[in-house]
Amino acid sequence: MVSRARTINRRILPRDEHVARAMAAAARGAQTHSGYEYSFKWKSGTGRTHDATRIAYNRIQLFGNMIEESARERQDFYVWNIHRGLQYQNKSSDY
Asked: Cβ distance 81 to 40 under 8 Å?
């Protein structure tokens, strides 16, 4: 999994640390703005590819939530083709 949540020295973070960072990112994001709607593809192990849409405050929270919900033990977990869009309410309130 490629994630911005890696440390500066490119150390791959364990699952629990990803989830802890996601909770902290959600708390920070909730103070500054409403969530964005992310659409992406994900895959765990040799299973099939899934298309998904989730609302999150930033990519770190998105990765942490997906790891918590969908990652399986001892299998690689991939999230890619991430597109961020505003929620409909945010778009309509700007006009």
From this structure: yes
